[in-house]
């Protein structure tokens, strides 16, 4: 059944949707525009919407050879290293989280262990805890045991962000697989390992791809952990902030860095969109 | 093929005892049906045999080997679940091949067996479909196919037909019975539908509250129910139960005065200690007939018939009414004689009557019909 609305109501509703879109799109458009402008153009007020776009800012980000010579001075930026760092850390975190989190999710979904709900809630609780809660105690510990500013150390602490999500999501995905199916496989002669390999994992695959994308993004956008626990291995989010030098502020270069930082997740989202939707809505629909 | 023996099997979840001291012997090629009301422990017992539920006490033997601690995967049994439990990400062909792959059969062997099973169950044309593109009945057939493809020792069925509509249920019932004849395997089948039990079983096991009430052939259970519970559970419509008092016990049986009036001499093994005690007389609706003076009928009941409660099944008609304060159902061979009358006399032969003591146990009948097997 469809409700028939007067055209005026429709108009207002559409307008509201338009305003929402505008509010959300505004910073995005602004940043993209800034990244294509020259430093001088950025500072003008009122802002110009008509300008000759330049890719110079992007060149500066990656052009280590010319040491970032621009028309308005020289800045030394090495943006490739933080991007590599971010990729290694985020990807590593996802892989480690999958390896640990999915089995943990399985146990929480299927086995009767004492205090199951409490354990599950404690793990999820980390999602709501401020990251600094772990960062500050870890800072001195990491320096003492030589994990400060290493990939291993970073991937380790990033588990605070990624692991609870994977445990929680994979638990709910596994709960959606009827237990009968696993039991049927056992009756069909499959030992537990083969049940997991042939039945559980294939059924989990779409959900896990979505969940992996989701936690990759969480890791990618994390800022506090990298800021405190790394320097040369700092992720891209930290590197972006460093572009805000005291003194000169290279807004267009920073905007270009932001665009690059955003583009990578956007590409991932586009590739994995189908799965991501499933990852987000999995537990919601029966 | 295999025989299965349960020796004092029990199951407890924590402190809750759900099965107690189950003794049962199942022979080669037997079709055994577990029946009982919801929560009586049928599924739990079946799952213990299958290896899906840990055994809390007693011994389970398959082919004279204790298998209490053998993994489900190693018991070589086939099981059909109520939910079918097909592998949703696999085609029908892959579903059927799965048990064979787990048994590490060769590719050629797998193909032959899958093809054989598919044609046995008439589903050759479905092999390349995924389960979600099948109807309920087709899924059911795939589930059965997957259980039999490996030619396991014993088949276990847990209410396999309860998700099907009535017509399909009857069809599948016949198919499973045929399959049993063709394959000759031992089958253990759980249902709460006494008609399925009666029509399919060689041996029925009636469970109630985690204990076996009675084990026997369908004929046995119908004609010699060991308790009031079994008598009421087997047969449809349910057996009538009429209250009464024992007046005398003598060689040919016991005289019972019914609360509804009549005095009946029921041919059961007499027990003098029951004289003067209350007793329940059971009689099946089908054993009633309209009263006629000529016939030698020793029990006459006046039924106040409420004609709103007449059930026509086409071939038979059941009338519902009251004898004294007790509800009675009776078969009426023809609906005509009852038409319009508020009162009807029904008669039955005392030989068709059962007597149950206050604890629910039945007294042995002296002239129960001979077994038809
Ligand atoms: N995991 C469990 N924990 C505690 N009690 C359980 C558990 N599983 C089953 N039970 C109890 O065991 C008893 C038997 O259950 P079971 O499923 O075997 O009954 P059933 O005869 O198959 O019934 P139905 O006809 O409804 O399927 C029930 O009282 C049930 O509540
Ligand atoms: Mg059950």
Secondary structure category of chain B? alpha+beta
Measured between the Cα atoms of the first and last residue of chain A, the distance is: 23 Å
- In spatial order, strands of the major sheet of chain A run 1-2
What integer is the average pLDDT of chain B? 88
CATH homology superfamily name of the largest domain in chain B: P-loop containing nucleotide triphosphate hydrolases
Shape of chain B: elongated
Classification by helices and strands of chain A: mainly alpha
Low-confidence runs of at least 5 consecutive residues of chain A: 281-286
SS elements, strand count of chain B:
20
Order of helices and strands of chain B: EEEHEEEHHHEHEHEEHHEEEEEEEEEE
Give the C-level CATH assignment of the domain at 80-242 in chain A: Mainly Alpha
Largest sheet of chain A, described in full? 2 strands, antiparallel
Strand content of chain B: 25-35%
Give the overall pLDDT of chain A as a whole number.
84
Q: Quickly count the helices of chain B.
A: 8
**CATH fold group of the largest domain in chain B:** Rossmann fold
How large a portion of the residues of chain A is in β-strands, by DSSP E?
A: under 5%
What does this 3D model show about the protein?
- The complex is a heterodimer of chains A (286) and B (373).
- Chain A has helices spanning 7-35, 39-43, 56-62, 80-110, 116-125, 132-145, 151-176, 179-187, 192-220, 224-229, 236-242, 251-281; strands at 69-70, 73-74.
- Chain A has a two-stranded antiparallel ribbon.
- In chain A, 71% of the residues lie in helices and 1% in strands.
- Chain A has a domain at 80-242: MetI-like fold.
- Mean pLDDT of chain A is 84; it is low at 281-286.
- Chain A is built from twelve helices and two strands.
- Chain B has two domains: 4-229, P-loop containing nucleotide triphosphate hydrolases (Rossmann fold, 3-Layer(aba) Sandwich); 237-356, Nucleic acid-binding proteins (OB fold (Dihydrolipoamide Acetyltransferase, E2P), Beta Barrel).
- Chain B is built from eight helices and 20 strands.
- In chain B, the strands form four sheets. A six-stranded mixed beta sheet of chain B has the order 6-7-8-3-9-10, with helices on both faces. A five-stranded antiparallel beta sheet of chain B has the order 13-12-11-14-20.
- In chain B, strand 12 and strand 13 form a beta hairpin.
- In chain B, helix 2 (92-102) crosses helix 3.
- The model of chain B has no long low-confidence stretch (mean pLDDT 88).
- The interface between A and B is medium-sized, with 17 and 26 residues.
- Bound molecules: adenosine-5'-triphosphate (ATP) and magnesium ion (MG).
- Adenosine-5'-triphosphate is lined by residues 13, 16, 18, 36, 38-44, 192 of chain B.
- The site of adenosine-5'-triphosphate (ATP) has 12 residues of chain B, from strand 2 and helix 1.
């Amino acid at each position: 059944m469809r409700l028939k609305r007067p055209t005026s109501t429709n108009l207002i509703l559409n307008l509201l949707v338009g305003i929402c879109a505008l509010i959300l799109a505004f910073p995005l458009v602004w940043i993209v525009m800034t990244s294509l402008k020259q430093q001088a153009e950025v500072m003008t007020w009122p802002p110009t919407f008509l300008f000759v776009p330049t890719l110079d800012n992007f060149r500066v980000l990656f052009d280590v050879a010319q040491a970032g010579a621009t028309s308005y001075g020289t800045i030394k930026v090495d943006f490739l290293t933080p991007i590599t760092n971010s990729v290694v850390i985020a990807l590593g975190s996802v892989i480690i989280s999958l390896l640990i989190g999915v089995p943990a999710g399985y146990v929480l979904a299927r086995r009767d262990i004492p205090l199951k709900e409490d354990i599950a809630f404690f793990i999820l609780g980390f999602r709501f805890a401020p990251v600094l809660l772990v960062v500050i105690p870890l800072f001195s510990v990491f320096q003492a045991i030589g994990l400060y500013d290493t990939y291993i150390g970073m991937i380790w602490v990033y588990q605070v962000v990624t692991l609870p999500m994977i445990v929680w999501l994979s638990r709910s995905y596994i709960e959606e697989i009827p237990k009968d199916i696993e039991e049927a496989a056992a009756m069909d002669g499959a030992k537990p390992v083969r049940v997991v390999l042939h039945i559980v994992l294939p059924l989990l695959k779409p959900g896990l791809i979505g969940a992996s994308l989701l936690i990759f993004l969480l890791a990618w956008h994390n800022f506090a952990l990298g800021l405190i626990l790394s320097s040369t291995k700092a992720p891209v989010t930290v590197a972006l902030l460093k572009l805000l030098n005291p003194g000169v502020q290279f807004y267009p270069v920073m905007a270009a860095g932001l665009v690059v930082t955003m583009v990578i997740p956007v590409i991932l989202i586009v590739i994995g969109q189908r799965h991501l939707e499933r990852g987000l809505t999995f537990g919601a629909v029966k | 093929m295999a025989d299965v023996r349960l020796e004092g099997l029990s199951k407890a979840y924590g402190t809750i005892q759900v099965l107690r001291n189950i003794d049962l012997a199942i022979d080669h090629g037997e079709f055994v049906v577990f029946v009982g009301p919801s929560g009586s422990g049928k599924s739990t017992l079946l799952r213990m045999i299958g290896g899906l539920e840990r055994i809390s006490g007693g011994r389970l033997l398959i082919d004279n080997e204790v298998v209490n601690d053998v993994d489900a995967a190693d018991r070589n049994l086939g099981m059909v679940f109520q939910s079918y439990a097909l592998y949703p990400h696999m085609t029908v062909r892959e579903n059927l091949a799965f048990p064979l792959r787990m048994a590490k059969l060769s590719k050629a062997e797998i193909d032959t067996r899958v093809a054989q099973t598919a044609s046995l169950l008439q589903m050759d044309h479905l092999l390349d479909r995924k389960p979600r593109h099948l109807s309920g009945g087709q899924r059911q057939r795939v589930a059965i196919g997957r259980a039999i493809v490996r030619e396991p020792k014993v088949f276990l069925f847990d209410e396999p037909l309860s998700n099907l509509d009535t017509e399909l249920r009857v069809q599948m019932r016949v198919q499973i019975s045929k399959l049993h004849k063709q394959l000759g395997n031992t089958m253990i089948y759980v249902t709460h539908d006494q008609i399925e039990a009666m029509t399919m079983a060689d041996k029925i096991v009636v469970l109630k509250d985690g204990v076996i009430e009675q084990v026997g052939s369908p004929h046995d259970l119908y004609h010699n129910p060991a308790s009031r519970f079994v008598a009421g559970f087997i047969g449809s419509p349910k057996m009538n139960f009429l209250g009464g008092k024992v007046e005398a016990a003598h060689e040919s049986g016991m005289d019972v005065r019914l609360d509804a009036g009549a005095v009946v001499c029921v041919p059961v093994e007499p027990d003098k200690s029951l004289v003067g005690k209350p007793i329940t007389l059971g009689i099946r609706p089908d054993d009633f007939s309209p009263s006629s003076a000529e016939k030698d009928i020793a029990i006459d009941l006046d039924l106040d018939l409420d004609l709103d409660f007449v059930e026509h099944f086409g071939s038979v008609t059941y009338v519902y009414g009251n004898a004294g304060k007790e509800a009675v159902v009776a078969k009426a061979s023809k609906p005509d004689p009852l038409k319009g009358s508020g009162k009807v006399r029904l008669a039955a032969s005392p030989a068709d009557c059962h007597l149950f003591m206050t604890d629910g146990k039945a007294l042995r009948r002296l002239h129960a019909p001979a077994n038809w097997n």
